[in-house]
Amino acid sequence: MSVSSALSTYREGSLHAALKDLYARPDDRVEETVDGFVVDVVRPDELVEIQTGSFASAARKLRRLVEDRRLALVHPVAAERWLVRVDTDGMMTDRRRSPKRGQRLDLFDQLVAFPELVAHPNFRVELVMIREEEIRGPIPAGARYRYPRQWWRLDRRLLEVVEIVRIDTPGDLLGLLPAGVPDQFTTADIAAASGRPKRLSMRTAYCLQRAGSTRCIGRLGRLNLYEKNVT
């Protein structure tokens, strides 16, 4: 694989293509235009949209489509990632496992773009926990980055689906919280239980409240105190 061909694959999105193949049934239509938007998989009773990156770019599209149709948003999170380095000729120079491991909680990092949609009767999320390879190669001449770096990501490849978590209602979002978070909690409780940065804990609390999964019942010191809406 040359760097140029790897770049083409990245633009097509190997991970995106693999998930589309996974979700497309024999009678489904793929890359179909619906209400002026290209949708990954179109079924008679549901649309399937796959987002491997930021949700923000799809917010307008999803809000429009769920007005009249059922829609499933599919998002992968890498529970395990292997980092593969290639040289300018596309030859692998190194392969190692990343020390970072994704959690269910990572969904909230993107869901912050439209947490209220989880309460919409036409909307659901499928969180796909995966094992993946991330292909990294040399930075092309002339490319500029805000921070100095010696590589860029060429591709993401699906190795294995570990688990699929379906979220149909706001209550299902509570199942993404790590073990140890009590029924009444603060963002500090989320951070402590997950070992993740404060920023993700704040996004999680925001999403849960906007979706109706929790409610703010006061303060605990300088932090908001939330209570799970368990029904």
Average pLDDT works out at 92
Instruction: Report Rg.
Output: 19 Å
How large is the share of residues in beta strands? 35-45%
Number of domains: 2
- What is the count of DSSP helices, taking H or I runs of 4+ residues? 7
Largest sheet geometry: 7 strands, mixed
Q: What percentage of residues falls in helices of 4 or more residues? A: 25-40%
H/E element string? HHEEEHEEHEEHEHHEE
Q: In total, how many beta strands? A: 10
Apparent shape = globular
- Look at the helices and sheets and give the structural class: alpha+beta
Low-confidence runs: 1-10
Write up what this structure looks like.
- The protein is of the alpha+beta class.
- The protein has 7 helices and 10 strands.
- The strands form 2 sheets. Strands 1, 2, 3, 4, 5, 6 and 7 form a 7-stranded mixed beta sheet that branches. It has a 3-stranded antiparallel beta sheet with strand order 8-10-9.
- Helix 6 crosses helix 7.
- The N terminus is likely disordered.
How are the secondary structure elements laid out?
Layout: H1 3-12, H2 14-23, E1 29-34, E2 37-42, E3 47-50, H3 59-65, E4 71-86, E5 92-97, H4 107-111, E6 123-137, E7 152-167, H5 170-173, E8 184-185, H6 187-194, H7 198-211, E9 214-220, E10 223-228
Helix pairs in contact: 6-7
